[in-house]
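cron nightly-structures :: item 1 of 1
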Amino acid sequence: MNRANRVHIIDDDEAVRDSLSFLLRTAAFDVATYPSATHFLEMLTKDIKGCVITDMRMPDISGLDLLRRLRSSSCALPVIMITGHGDIQLAVEAMKAGAVDFLEKPFDDERVLTAVRSALEGTRTDGERAGLRSEVEERLDSLSQRERQVLDGLVAGLPNKSIAYDLGISPRTVEVYRANVMTKMQAGSLSELVRMALLVQSP
């Protein structure tokens, strides 16, 4: 098996591990599964390859704690977070801490495969990052003031109801603005939208 193509799945839910493992093996990825972050850390080596998919909420060591440990030990493995509907704020925090993507439950197969392929492709060059940053800035400039406020709320990890309350508008109106933001930013998912916003904010 190609270790560089290995996907390390970490989740305390056996059904989730089995489901993701079956999907990824069917798509010709090499897969290893672990019932906890502790089990994964026990076998972690300096020459480990591939990427990590980890649940955000796990007993003992959470997905976010695992990410921080990997980054503090200079482990460059790309990390994709699995999050529940109420974990968006944590997911955004994880991306700020270095996660490359997050998948909201329930997630569809193609979304998982796209996230894994992107993670395994590696980081962009400085030139590619600069070009993408320029494109994102142009898209941001196309947003209205209200759309930018909604975007700021989304990047902060706030749910629609909280954004609505802060702006003095209805949650339904927030949904409309959110859809407009996704279209103008050419974002296919919330995680992609967050990544673009964080790219512009980064030094």
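cron nightly-structures :: done
The chain has a mean pLDDT of 86.
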